[in-house]
Amino acid sequence: MLQVKNLKKTYGAFSLDVSLEVQEGSITGLIGQNGVGKSTIFKAILGLIAREGGTIRLFGKETKNFDREDKERLGVVLPDSGFSSYLTIQDIIPILASLYPRFEEKRFLEKCRSFQLPLDKKIKEFSTGMKGKLKILAAISHRADFLFLDEPTAGLDVTARDELLDILREYMEEKENRSILISSHISTDLEGLCDDLYMIQDGRIVLHEDTDVLLGDYALLKVTEEQYRTLEKRYLQKKMKQSYGYSCLTSQKQFYLENYPGITVENGSIDEVITMLVKGESI
């Protein structure tokens, strides 16, 4: 559904050069620390900043040629976006209705009530979690076909994050051809939600993998220096020196379980995989 090829953008010493895809009916996650280029990707795709190179196609169409009807098919949540803090939910309903012909007022109000969002209270009095829920509900209120969510769970407590993720799961279940591109620096938010994950570091994609493969096939090998010397290294991606020897990242966990029963093989969390890819030494 979304194809980004060789997207380029430069800010001083920072350089972005990425390619990624989001398949129809899937949720794709973009993981990386703050400042590595996630928001730049979102803004370039949405036409909020000028790109210096590359192509971006969505719904089979170059986004530079999008018309109003194309844009109405999008739902967007950005960290610095939102409604005036002096408005109430009742105040923003006519705004949404004027922006989106497909706005579903009745359903929007039902969702707001189900998530205990007060309709007549000014947004400035909302908690951070309440504001996050409102932004998501507004983004899906007009039957959007594609959601762009840049750090939607930032600053939220665990309960509020879980509620937001439930909203997104329900959104996807309602219509099979919907898609989401969501970014976060909190990997646990995405590992139970996304079909596949892109990891970005310093403006470059360092890994793209199906979430099931990442969680099931990747592992950390904990080995002594002697064990490392005899280890088959063609399936190792990175290594990191430790007090006991080395920690090594592999995407072929089963190979080492079957052929090296004497070494310690641990399932690596997404955070540990990112750390190894970014800070680990090449084999």
From TrEMBL:
Xref: Gene3D superfamilies: P-loop containing nucleotide triphosphate hydrolases
Any single Pfam family the record assigns to this protein: ABC_tran
ABC transporter domain sequence ranges: 2-227
KW Transcription (keyword) present: no
Keywords: ATP-binding, Nucleotide-binding, Transport
Keyword match Ribonucleoprotein: no
MF terms (GO), sorted A to Z: ATP binding; ATP hydrolysis activity
Protein name: ABC transporter ATP-binding protein
